[in-house]
Amino acid sequence: MKQSSPVHAIVVVLIALIPLLYAGYIYPTLPETIPLHFNWEGKPDRFDHKSELWFPVILLSVVSIFVYLLVSNLSRIDPKKTAGQSPELYKKIAIVITVFLCAINLIIVHSAVSGSVQFSKLMLPLMGLFFSVLGNYMHSIKPNYFVGFRTPWTLENEDNWRKTHQLVGKLWVPGGILLMLLAFILPEKAAIIAFFTILLCIVFIPAVYSYLYFKKNSR
Fold it and tell me: For residue 195, which phi and psi values (nearest 5 degrees)?
């Protein structure tokens, strides 16, 4: 089995450290009291000393590194033993997740500077991009217990897994792109409603399909 490249690990660590470096750079310029929590409208609803900013930033950086190590080493710990068939794929997915968490971390730090969060213009497009990118990999993911669209029926049957993940890929790529576009076009409240409506559809439809496929083939 091909071992994980140390270059990839170094790159991931550097990506995870970017928010910490950004926080360290702007920390001296921050006021003593900063916003640390925001409501759905992006307005601050909890303030605290600026030193409290370090906890979520460090925690999310550590989590991103842990997730990378977990996903990129699935071939060693997956009980189904199928993750070893495509280790490079899981490495790519692990890097995508790391970059996604890094972006969220940067938004957390930036919110402390700006005093607000443009939820519809930052988080929603980021989530849309995340779903769209992951959708490109869905059809190639082998059955496993950690990564993919896991339902009781996809985990039970390999054909169910394959068919469901093909559908997920067809829904998530255009769905993610649509989420990004609507986030920039629609007003904030309408964008949030559209986001959760589309999100519900691209998650609920494959789940129902997985169940119906199971029922059809179990008769």
Answer: -60, -50
Same domain for 205 and 99, yes or no, is no
User: pLDDT of 167-192, one tens digit each?
Assistant: 999 999 999 999 999 998 998 889 88
Residue with the two structure tokens 């003593």 = 32
> How does DSSP classify residue 218?
T
d(CA 195, CA 129): 12
For the chain, first and last CA: distance in Å?
Answer: 40
Mean confidence (pLDDT) of the chain: 86
Coil/strand/helix, residue 73: coil
Residues 171 and 135 in one domain: yes
pLDDT for residue 40: 66
180: amino acid identity, one letter:
M
Tokens representing 156? Answer: 């039970």
Number of structural domains in the chain: 2
- Chain length of the chain: 219
Structural domain boundaries enclosing 215: 119-219
Residues of the chain with pLDDT under 70: 1-5, 40-42, 78, 80-85, 219
Contact criterion met (CB below 8 Å) for 106 and 19? yes
In what helix (H) or strand (E) does residue 56 lie, and over which residues does it extend? helix 54-72
Contacts of 31 (CB under 8 A, 6+ apart): 50
